[in-house]
TrEMBL record:
<dbReference type="InterPro" id="IPR002018">
    <property type="entry name" value="CarbesteraseB"/>
</dbReference>
<feature type="domain" description="Carboxylesterase type B">
    <location>
        <begin position="9"/>
        <end position="93"/>
    </location>
</feature>
<dbReference type="Pfam" id="PF00135">
    <property type="entry name" value="COesterase"/>
</dbReference>
<dbReference type="InterPro" id="IPR029058">
    <property type="entry name" value="AB_hydrolase_fold"/>
</dbReference>
<protein>
    <recommendedName>
        <fullName>Carboxylesterase type B domain-containing protein</fullName>
    </recommendedName>
</protein>
<keyword id="KW-0378">Hydrolase</keyword>
<dbReference type="GO" id="GO:0052689">
    <property type="term" value="F:carboxylic ester hydrolase activity"/>
</dbReference>
<comment type="similarity">
    <text>Belongs to the type-B carboxylesterase/lipase family.</text>
</comment>
<dbReference type="InterPro" id="IPR050654">
    <property type="entry name" value="AChE-related_enzymes"/>
</dbReference>
Length: 256
């Protein structure tokens, strides 16, 4: 169906839609792009990859479950509060309405399942933060970890506030503090030696890092308010894995 926007610019009826768009005034296209994104649901992208049966032949969850991977090793680090910046912190939506807006293909059964998983996770804003963070970032990471078996390691960046993207400054820092050395060396050790446990730089205080397949072991990267590193191993929360199992079960409806 062809949609008409506020500028009444149409290309849907043109036999060559790409040429039509290329011929359009750039200011018109910029305005359209802005309007489309502003009308999208908060924290989401309006243009995303879709399964077309040719270029993308199936959902990534299906591909991963078949063991069809394009590399041999995986080091996956998520942040403790991934969803925060993608959720309006003054939203009035309850978890049922939030999930329905985030995943419009969900039916009553899928929404009810999400409510069951998150209804006891604090207030409605905290529930939305968790839904966004876990459904989009964290749970797909665990699906990948399972696909790689014993060749995958899991970490969590927990330095407060540990929101999405807040770890970037620690990857490329110029200093050689104990925390920076431990955090960045783990990545480079996998790149160079296929193992985050390879200590190629002195001063790396990271404890032995077992693969995630081994008892759900994760490496937690944190530090105190005074900057003292607090790096330790932990076990993946069983309640989180239960919620991730829910997201895997509804992945056909979330297009994942």
């Amino acid at each position: 169906m062809e949609r008409t926007n506020t500028l009444n610019y149409r290309c849907g009826s043109n036999s060559d839609t790409l040429s039509c768009l290329r011929a359009a005034d750039v200011n018109t296209l910029q305005t359209l792009n802005t309007n489309i994104n502003l009308n999208g649901f908060y924290g989401t992208y309006t243009f995303v990859p879709v399964v077309d049966g040719t270029f993308i032949v199936e959902r990534p969850t299906v591909t991963i479950s078949k063991g069809r991977l394009n590399c041999d090793y995986l080091l996956a680090v998520t942040n403790a509060n991934e969803g925060y910046i993608f959720v309006s912190q003054i939203t009035k939506l309850d978890v049922a309405d939030y999930v329905s807006e985030l995943f419009p293909n969900f039916g009553p059964a899928q929404v009810a399942g999400a409510v069951m998983m998150y209804q006891d996770q604090g207030n409605n804003v905290n529930q939305a933060n968790l839904v966004m963070g876990e459904s989009i970032f964290i749970c797909p990471t665990y699906h990948l970890l399972e696909g790689f078996g014993g060749q995958a390691w899991k970490g969590e960046f927990s330095v407060p506030p540990a929101r999405h993207g807040y770890d970037m400054q620690y990857y490329f820092a110029s200093d050689n503090s104990p925390f920076i050395t431990a955090f960045s060396n783990s990545f480079m050790a996998v790149v160079m030696y296929n193992d985050p446990n390879y200590r190629y730089t002195s001063g790396d205080i990271t404890p032995p890092w077992m693969s995630w397949l081994y008892r759900g072991t994760e490496m937690i990267f944190n530090q105190t308010s005074s900057g003292v590193p607090h790096i330790y191993t932990s076990k993946t929360d069983s309640a989180l894995l239960e919620r991730c199992a829910y997201w895997r079960n509804v992945s056909a409806y979330s297009a994942q």
